[in-house]
Specification:
Layout lengths: L1 E5 L5 E5 L3 E5 L2 E4 L3 E6 L2 E6 L3 E5 L8 E7 L2 E12 L3
Parallel strand pairs: 2-9
Antiparallel strand pairs: 1-4, 3-7, 5-6, 5-8, 8-9
Length: 87
Amino acid sequence: MVAPALTQVKTTQFVLYNHSSFLWCPAEGAPAPVIFWRKNGIVVQNTTSVRYKLDIVKGNNVTYSCEVKNKDKLTKKEFVLYIESEL
């Protein structure tokens, strides 16, 4: 078993208001880890997908995180979103 690891995670992300965007959480491990996406601490997606799609609206200015888990090992990263308007 290889503990899960988060590689090349950008914890600060800039997104455009009123557009769709993705959060990325590239995870490695053996067996392949399950990824839990959270918004303000509440699970919003439970998957093996390394990306989470969100529509950028006013209420998205919150804390997101991804947790990767395999067997008893858990690793977590939080994301800060900066919502920008189009010029």
